[in-house]
Specification:
By secondary structure, the protein is α+β, with helices and mostly antiparallel strands. It contains three helices and four strands, in the order H-E-E-E-H-E-H. Strands 1-2-3-4 form a four-stranded mixed β-sheet. Helix 2 packs parallel to helix 3. The longest helix has 27 residues. The chain is rod-shaped.
Length: 116
């Protein structure tokens, strides 16, 4: 059995003050951590997970110009990640992606800037 230790008034106030401050600060910190997104999404085209996996939403059709290869390669190069960690996702019809037309072989020419 441990011996009972006497605590002075100043030590008691210091310890209870520190405990109260810890409780007061822990509630907003827990709320902030719970509200923090698990993924970084700087724009509609790009999403980076906590583990470093990257999703690229391609809003253009693949019609032989290599858009589903070129755009993920651009993202991998810009972020300095292995190309194997970049997944291509098909963008659904949404105004966030702008005009979703595949014309004039401009998919890579016009699509690389939002990904940079």
């Amino acid at each position: 059995m441990s011996a009972i230790r006497k605590m002075g008034r100043r030590e008691f106030l210091a310890r209870t003050g520190a405990a109260a401050a810890g409780l007061v600060l822990s509630v907003p910190l827990r709320q902030a951590l719970a509200a923090a997104p698990a993924r970084l999404e700087p724009n509609a085209f790009l999403s980076v997970g906590e583990g470093g996996d990257v999703d690229v939403w391609v809003a253009r059709s693949e019609m032989g110009q290599g858009v589903r290869t070129a755009l993920p390669m651009i993202v991998a190069d810009e972020l300095g990640v292995d190309l194997g960690r970049v997944r291509v996702r098909e963008a659904l019809a949404d105004p966030r992606y702008g005009q979703m037309m595949t014309v004039g072989s401009t998919s890579v020419r016009n699509g690389w800037e939002p990904l940079r």
